[in-house]
Amino acid sequence: MLNIIWAGFFVLAFICAIGQSLCGNFEVWPQMVQSLFASADNGFKIAINLTGVLCFWLGCMKIAEKSGLIDLLAKAIYPLFYRIMPDVPQNSPAFGSMVMNIAANILGLDNAATPMGLKAMEQLQDVNKNKQKASDAMVLFMVINASSVTLFPITILMYRYQMGSADPAAVFIPILLATSISTMVGFLATLAWQKINVFNKVVMTYLLAGIGFVAAIAWGFAAMDEQTRTQISYLISNIILISLATGFIVSGMLRKLNVYELFIDGAKDGFKIAVQIIPYLVAMLVAIGLFRASGGLDYICSGFAWIFEKMGLNTDFVAALPTALMKPLSGSGARAMMLDTFATYGVDSFAGFAASVVQGSTETTFYVLAVYFGAVKISKTGAALPLALLADLAGIVSAIGLAYWFYQG
């Protein structure tokens, strides 16, 4: 599947460029060449820039693992994960790493989430029988990551504030609801695909607890004014980030471990992973960059606009479509699209509001796929991509619907 998608980007980009040439736009070819080199360079830089973060958090993870913190986390969620990932042994440290990753994503701690997720993928690969093909557990974990709930979308709130929004945190609740829907659809679709009984009492208990937790957060923040919501979100995320790192180190010291040496050992793994994912990142980002430079994304947006106009539907959301279509492909690209929408229509316009909610509703699926599976050299990703894209679709559709509901009442 990934092989077809990757090659498809090149073929479609070439076809779109020919179409542009037939319309008299011959500048598309040098633009595509420029994009090719820029995207390759960007892929390398992303991996290198990720090196420090990977080294730091995998160093901390090594301390947490040796101090027993990971085992404690694994025991807390084992009743659920045992039922949805039956092929993973009970004593696998992957359970604890997955919990740390999911928790970091939920709290918006991107810098901590990726290293923890890569560590979990390595541990899942250790118990994977077919080293070339993603296991069911890997697919489920990847889909959860590609659609993960984010309680504190700090980056989006900060961009809205910097662009002069009168109410930067107005998108907080719709983002929370949209990303929750995305995760729920991805999670349930993957369980159904893998023929796992979602109506199991334990699974349902965890699901209902998760839904209740999200609802409580939404209710609590809805009661705050916009300035308080932004300040509390920002404060909580930063406190948790520092507390995690400090807690890992203190737990190791209480166990009388040499935390410095353990940190160095873990940091070495971070460097190896950063180097290993470079080819995968470059391959994916170049393909996506070519497709974007060819005008393919513009064609798709125009096509959607034409279809919805013919159907007589409200097309106010079309201005936010570039962000929606770019988000699964490129995080930086989607952010650029969102900022362009802010600048063109106004940050507090409906288009700006919708683009903000869309930006926070899903993850960068192709980036996550390239990094996570590339780190463990998985070439056959199974149903991971279509299931993740289904979650993306659910997140984008719900984001647009929620934007209408919250903005226009």
Structure overview:
It is a single chain. The chain is mostly helical and 409 residues long. The protein has one domain. Helix content is 78%, strand content 0%. The protein is built from 18 helices and no strands. Helix 6 runs antiparallel to helix 8. It is globular and about 70 Å long. It starts with a helix and ends with a helix. The mean pLDDT is 84.
Structure, briefly:
The chain is mostly helical and 409 residues long. The chain has helices spanning 2-22, 28-67, 69-84, 94-106, 110-126, 136-146, 154-162, 172-193, 201-222, 226-254, 259-276, 278-293, 296-310, 321-326, 331-345, 350-361, 365-375, 384-408.
| Secondary-structure element string | HHHHHHHHHHHHHHHHHH
Write down how many β-strands occur, each being a DSSP E stretch of 2 or more residues. Answer: 0
What structural class do helix, strand and pairing data support? mainly alpha
First-to-last CA distance? 41 Å
SSE layout and pairing:
Elements: H1 2-22, H2 28-67, H3 69-84, H4 94-106, H5 110-126, H6 136-146, H7 154-162, H8 172-193, H9 201-222, H10 226-254, H11 259-276, H12 278-293, H13 296-310, H14 321-326, H15 331-345, H16 350-361, H17 365-375, H18 384-408
Protein traits:
409 residues, mainly alpha, 78% helix, globular
